[in-house]
């Protein structure tokens, strides 16, 4: 028996007041619809179909990395109509289809798994996801007889007794595929809105004597996001959930409320994170790291025992026991070795830095391959761009680069070579040699006194 998922993502989301499709707005760095897709996949629903509408080009582009298929709802005519538009996807399949909304990013894998287990254990034709809340005003009530759902009643249609029911419908379901497809044929839009409602399928199945079940979860998980304010609420809930997850796994936050940790970030135990830190994308932070204030790390891999101080690391790798910052900038596609020092106001771009190398301050390294135990003096610049093309520089093991050196790419500095401070290097430096590339010092004694005398006369001193 197969497990399939439909994600409803065709809504226009007018209340968001945005040119971006509602389901592509992000919560903790990930699009809402991708939160739902990833959760369904992690719960074992590998075959996912996304139902898209007017903004389908946007939604398809925003979910293309997830390997999903698509169905199109040209004109929004209700949730039941959306599922009818996916009938071709379901045709010929056997098993269970989960139907979830793409604007409910707080749903958890454990909840989907529990819902599926209940659906299978009870051999239900349909299972609803529900919540019990203290103030259910405005929500459709779930009327039960023990474990079995009798009906869903909209708030305006409830009797006084039904209004006392605290269990509400979350709008997420699991169905036996064949029974769902048969029921969709009987669905009609004979209502004031002229729409096809998925909730009516429950009534159709119930009318046939089919078993309808329900699985209860926390209300926060079922929150749909329809406005910027609700987006902010979802963000706050998700941020706390992420922070607590990492704290339970051995990470220390000195103030988790002032940090930003993305949904797909992994952090090793005994790492300490200070205020103002932002860790985004698919980032891995090792154990025993210290991330000091106002650092940003995106789509990067950080080894064990690394310290990062007020610095930016983008799409790069940093080896264990390396120190970065303060105020360093590691740009994409850089690989920094172990026991490296990347000091203050250092910028590294698309370069490989070997173990034990020291780049202490005020240095730019771009398009370079740097070996082990190299020392870069203050103010070194690798001049990698000639106005048309980027060129590569190679600095081999144990080289020493003096302060205020320019390395004009392409150029190679071989093992153990020394470069005198203030040099501009344009040619290869041989192994174990000293390169000096600067003008010879000239001293003109008495020049200042002559200058002062001639200045009075209006003459120029040479």
UniProtKB/TrEMBL annotation:
Gene Ontology molecular functions: glucosamine-1-phosphate N-acetyltransferase activity; magnesium ion binding; UDP-N-acetylglucosamine diphosphorylase activity
Region ranges (N-acetyltransferase): 250-462
Active-site residues, as the UniProt record annotates them: 361 (proton acceptor)
Pfam families reported for this sequence: Hexapep, NTP_transferase
Assembly mode: Homotrimer.
Main location: cytoplasm
Pathway per the UniProt entry: Nucleotide-sugar biosynthesis; UDP-N-acetyl-alpha-D-glucosamine biosynthesis; UDP-N-acetyl-alpha-D-glucosamine from N-acetyl-alpha-D-glucosamine 1-phosphate: step 1/1; Nucleotide-sugar biosynthesis; UDP-N-acetyl-alpha-D-glucosamine biosynthesis; N-acetyl-alpha-D-glucosamine 1-phosphate from alpha-D-glucosamine 6-phosphate (route II): step 2/2; Bacterial outer membrane biogenesis; LPS lipid A biosynthesis
Alphabetical UniProt keywords: Acyltransferase, Cell shape, Cell wall biogenesis/degradation, Cytoplasm, Magnesium, Metal-binding, Multifunctional enzyme, Nucleotidyltransferase, Peptidoglycan synthesis, Repeat, Transferase
Domain of life, per lineage: Bacteria
Free-text function comment from the UniProt entry: Catalyzes the last two sequential reactions in the de novo biosynthetic pathway for UDP-N-acetylglucosamine (UDP-GlcNAc). The C-terminal domain catalyzes the transfer of acetyl group from acetyl coenzyme A to glucosamine-1-phosphate (GlcN-1-P) to produce N-acetylglucosamine-1-phosphate (GlcNAc-1-P), which is converted into UDP-GlcNAc by the transfer of uridine 5-monophosphate (from uridine 5-triphosphate), a reaction catalyzed by the N-terminal domain.
Annotated region (Pyrophosphorylase), positions in chain: 1-228
Cofactor binding comment, as recorded: Binds 1 Mg(2+) ion per subunit.
Localization of this protein: Cytoplasm
Positions annotated to bind acetyl-CoA: 384-385, 421, 438
Protein name: Bifunctional protein GlmU
UniProt-annotated binding residues for UDP-N-acetyl-alpha-D-glucosamine: 8-11, 22, 73, 78-79, 140, 154, 169, 226, 331, 349, 364, 375
Family affiliation: In the N-terminal section; belongs to the N-acetylglucosamine-1-phosphate uridyltransferase family.
Gene name linked to the record: glmU
Cofactor: Mg(2+)
UniProt binding sites for Mg(2+): 103, 226
GO cellular component labels: cytoplasm; membrane
Catalytic activity line of the entry: alpha-D-glucosamine 1-phosphate + acetyl-CoA = N-acetyl-alpha-D-glucosamine 1-phosphate + CoA + H(+); N-acetyl-alpha-D-glucosamine 1-phosphate + UTP + H(+) = UDP-N-acetyl-alpha-D-glucosamine + diphosphate
Domain Nucleotidyl transferase: residue ranges: 5-208
Linker: annotated segments: 229-249
């Amino acid at each position: 028996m197969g497990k399939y998922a439909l994600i409803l993502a065709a809504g226009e989301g007018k209340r968001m007041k945005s040119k971006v499709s509602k389901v592509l707005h992000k919560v903790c760095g990930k699009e809402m619809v991708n939160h739902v897709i990833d959760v369904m996949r992690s719960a074992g629903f590998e075959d996912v179909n996304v139902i898209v509408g007017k903004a389908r080009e946007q939604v398809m582009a925003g979910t293309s990395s997830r390997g999903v298929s698509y169905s199109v709802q040209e004109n929004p005519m209700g949730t039941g109509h959306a599922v009818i538009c996916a009938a071709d996807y379901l045709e010929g399949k056997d098993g269970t289809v989960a139907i979830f909304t793409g604007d409910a990013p707080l749903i958890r894998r454990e909840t989907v798994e529990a819902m599926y287990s209940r659906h299978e254990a009870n051999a239900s034709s349909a299972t609803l996801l529900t919540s019990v809340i203290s103030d259910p005003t405005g929500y459709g009530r779930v009327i039960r007889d023990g474990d079995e759902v009798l009906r869903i009643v909209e708030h305006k249609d409830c009797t006084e007794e039904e209004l006392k029911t605290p269990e509400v419908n979350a709008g997420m379901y699991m169905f036996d595929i064949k029974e769902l497809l048969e029921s969709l044929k009987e669905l009609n839009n004979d209502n004031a809105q002229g729409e096809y409602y998925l909730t009516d399928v429950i009534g159709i199945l119930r009318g046939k004597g089919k078993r309808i079940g329900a699985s209860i979860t926390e209300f926060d998980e079922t929150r749909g996001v329809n406005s910027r304010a609700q987006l902010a609420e979802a963000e706050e809930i998700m941020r706390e959930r992420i922070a607590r997850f990492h704290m339970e796994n051995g990470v220390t936050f000195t103030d988790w409320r002032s940090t930003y940790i993305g949904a797909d970030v992994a952090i090793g135990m005994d790492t300490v994170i200070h205020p103002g830190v932002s860790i985004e994308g698919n980032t891995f932070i090792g154990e025993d790291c210290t991330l000091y204030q106002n650092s940003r790390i995106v789509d990067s891999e950080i080894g064990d025992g690394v310290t990062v101080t007020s610095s930016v690391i983008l799409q790069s790798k940093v080896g264990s026991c390396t120190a970065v910052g303060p105020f360093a900038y590691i740009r994409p596609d850089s690989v920094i070795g172990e026991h490296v020092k990347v000091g203050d106001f250092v910028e590294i771009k698309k370069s490989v830095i070997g173990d034990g190398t020291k780049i202490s301050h005020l240095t730019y390294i771009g398009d370079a391959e740097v070996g082990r135990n190299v020392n870069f003096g203050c103010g070194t610049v690798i001049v990698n761009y000639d106005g048309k093309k980027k060129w590569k520089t190679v600095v081999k093991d144990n080289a020493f680069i003096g302060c205020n050196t320019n390395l004009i790419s392409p150029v190679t500095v071989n093992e153990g070579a020394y470069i005198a401070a203030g040099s501009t290097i344009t040619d290869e430096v041989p192994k174990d040699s000293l390169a000096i590339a600067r003008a010879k010092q000239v001293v003109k004694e008495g020049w200042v006194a002559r200058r002062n005398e001639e200045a009075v006369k209006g003459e120029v001193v040479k």
